[in-house]
Design goal:
Strand content: under 5%
Membrane topology: Multi-pass membrane protein
Family: Belongs to the SWEET sugar transporter family.
Radius of gyration: 21 Å
Protein name: Bidirectional sugar transporter SWEET
Number of domains: 1
Distance between the termini: 45 Å
Largest sheet: none
GO molecular function: sugar transmembrane transporter activity
Number of strands: 0
Structural class: mainly alpha
Shape: globular
Number of helices: 11
Keywords: Cell membrane, Membrane, Repeat, Sugar transport, Transmembrane, Transmembrane helix, Transport
Order of helices and strands: HHHHHHHHHHH
Helix content: 55-70%
């Protein structure tokens, strides 16, 4: 994350504290041994510094906590969907890809949070990882055999394979001074891709003239969450956090506007009779 100025205080121990953000790894000595944890988290002293940095910036901490709260609301939004899956003992036409992607994104942000010693990024994304794992476990239990196998392959290839390779390459071949920047770039790029993905839903709403497929509360909290994390990134001077949320805010506002335009169409939630929406064959998971 972007460099923050040294803390100003009469206490020399605080003045000497380094801000472990985007360019901070350059100030750390390379670790002699391989470790998943960055050098900045291998000693209690560095943990103390991380806490001091957090406490010394109350506004930034407050905005980050707000971002945590809003992100929690977003990640918990699919709970009714999975309650329905459990109740019907079938995944019906629901797709597992968004949850696999969400888990990968969260694990990447956890790694970035470790590299930059960012408590607020760590807490929310560890929580997101836990929730996404629960979602995927429920999906696998109730999915059709073909869909279950496909979801399992995605998890193994993306969440274990790709993420594991990135961490391995980062620790073995990238200098500690560059790890945070490269990891942050990957996180930001992937976050933009995640924000762009719902464009399919927007197109579907316009085509069907029904907002059944785009809940207002989810769009609303996505927008607020993007604002909070954009503000947090600015206060932190971290473009990797701020820039992707510009896309998130733009998408959220677009979804809200489209919702307001089409909210009075097809109040019964039914799609136009002449349009067949794609669904999945519950027997084998194929889309028909």
């Amino acid at each position: 994350m972007a460099n923050s100025p040294h803390l100003s205080s009469a206490n020399p121990s605080i003045n000497s504290t380094r801000d472990l953000r985007l360019h901070a790894p350059s100030k750390l000595q390379p670790s002699a041994t391989f470790s998943f944890l960055p050098t900045s988290l291998q000693t209690e002293r560095e943990l103390e510094k991380m806490l001091i940095i957090t406490i010394a910036h109350p506004l930034r901490t407050l905005v980050g906590l707000l971002g945590n709260l809003l992100s929690a609301m977003v990640v918990l939004a699919p709970v009714p969907t999975f309650y329905r899956i459990c109740k019907k003992k079938s995944t019906e036409s629901f797709d597992s890809v968004p949850y696999v992607v969400g888990l990968f994104s969260a694990t990447m942000w956890v790694y970035y949070g470790l590299l930059t010693a960012d408590v607020l990024l760590l807490t929310i994304n560890i929580g997101v990882c836990a929730v996404e794992v629960i979602y995927l476990a429920i999906f696998i239990v109730y999915a059709a055999p073909k869909s279950r196998a496909y979801t399992t392959k995605l998890i193994l290839s993306i969440n274990l394979g790709i993420f594991g390779c990135l961490v391995l390459v980062s620790n073995l071949f990238i200098k500690p001074s560059k790890r945070a920047q490269i990891t942050g770039g990957i996180c930001a790029s992937f976050a933009v891709a995640v924000f762009v993905a719902p464009l399919n839903i927007i197109r579907l709403v316009i085509k069907t003239k029904s907002v059944e497929f785009m809940p207002f509360t989810l769009s609303f909290f996505l927008t607020l969450s993007a604002v909070a994390w954009f503000s947090y990134g600015l206060l932190l001077r971290d473009l990797f956090v701020a820039v992707p949320n510009v896309f998130g805010f733009t998408l959220g506002v677009t979804q809200i506007i489209i919702y307001l335009v089409y909210m009075n169409h097809h109040k019964d939630g039914a799609a136009p009779a002449d349009l067949e929406l794609p669904v999945k064959d519950t027997e084998n998971g194929d889309q028909v």
